[in-house]
Amino acid sequence: xxxxxxxxxxxxxxxxxxxxxxxxxxxxxxxxxxxxxxxxxxxxxxxxxxxxxxxxxxxxxxxxxxxxxxxxxxxxxxxxxxxxxxxxxxxxxxxxxxxxxxxxxxxxxxxxxxxxxxxxxxxxxxxxxxxxxxxxxxxxxxxxxxxxxxxxxxxxxxxxxxxxxxxxxxxxxxxxxxxxxxxxxxxxxxxxxxxxxxxxxxxxxxxxxxxxxxxxxxxxxxxxxxxxxxxxxxxxxxxxxxxxxxxxxxxxxxxxxxxxxxxxxxxxxxxxxxxxxxxxxxxxxxxxxxxxxxxxxxxxxxxxxxxxxxxxxxxxxxxxxxxxxxxxxxxxxxxxxxxxxxxxxxxxxxxxxxxxxxxxxxxxxxxxxxxxxxxxxxxxxxxxxxxxxxxxxxxxxxxxxxxxxxxxxxxxxxxxxxxxxxxxxxxxxxxxxxxxxxxxxxxxxxxxxxxxxxxxx
Length: 457
Ligand SMILES: [Zn+2]
Fold this sequence. Notes:
Elements: H1 17-20, H2 24-45, H3 47-56, H4 66-72, H5 78-87, E1 102-109, E2 115-121, H6 122-139, E3 146-149, H7 157-169, E4 172-175, H8 181-191, E5 195-198, H9 200-212, E6 224-227, H10 237-247, E7 250-257, E8 261-265, E9 272-274, E10 280-285, E11 298-305, E12 316-325, E13 336-338, E14 343-344, E15 350-351, E16 354-355, H11 358-366, E17 371-382, E18 385-394, H12 403-418, E19 423-426, E20 442-444
Parallel strand pairs: 3-4, 3-5, 5-6, 6-7, 17-20, 18-19
Antiparallel strand pairs: 1-2, 7-8, 9-13, 10-11, 11-12, 12-13, 12-14, 15-16, 17-18
Helix pairs in contact: 2-3, 6-7, 8-9, 9-10, 10-11, 11-12
Zinc ion binds at residues 267, 269, 274, 328, 330, 332, 336.
């Protein structure tokens, strides 16, 4: 049975004002307490952590400050877990609860192409879902709203956790399942949901399909759209405008990592996301020096989750580059990532001396008239140097004789903004692949030894 928050003031902008506005010293004291508990739980119950922490010579009692934790507890990478799980499926010795406590199982792709398996206890799923309540509430969604999920269920954790969140919020949910886009539009017309949940690119695709069938998506009942799985409306302002205009709705996003948590719901200002500091501990590490990055400096987001008791992740390298701030104009004290994720530490391609972030290219494309939101970045390596080609698609109906002109405009705008010239290729409208779940934007054709399969961007 869903828990209906009968007594919650529907007008307050906070889901939990006490935690969301807790002063930093108090939050930090709470983190220290929780981190020590997580360390003890992992050490006592997971053979993997006992080995790892013994080898590093560090135990929960040695951690007296947050600095102790950041410096002394060894970092953890996804591949360590994947290796152990492959040796002894399904979870190797990473599990920290008896196997029959596992209530749900998801998977996420790894850099080696082998999936990481993620177990959750029933309690983990409750906590994971709570993060979505913050997200929905901050955007303006209330228990009286009705959700439409436009995807088929699978091993992808993002939308399962959204489902746990909707139950916790106490709202109504319609699951559209694996039907085609026309079917989803018909369901939305019939059921009149107020919240659409999908990947951001699929929301745009759905709007395209609706228009093709003579339906203006903005005239439908949807007041809010919510997104996960790819960089979304708070990471890419051009995408936010496209989604909000298409649906006549307000768009939010969740920065989540399947194995960690739905870790950062979008701020009401839509300029970034706030770390859910009740569900995890996060700090930012300068990848060059290994030291903590200063406020506003770009660093790798390192996470310890309080939400996954089944397979704890402690000082876990997310490879996401973020700019972290300790305050935000919305009044929340939780760490704020301006622009969400700015890049990946394992996406270290440099084009003639310039780091090119995917979000930057996407923002430029979103501002050029005649360019659709479908694009790919194709990486190749020629004579030891990385090269990147932007493969874009004009909007339907764009005249073929103006393709060349459009390609030149794209090349010029990228050069102006990023100081680097990238090759630009135009694909015929409707020919680049469409995805219901994670969209693959980066096509890496470099030799195996330099290639990284990117699983978030
Ligand atoms: Zn904020």
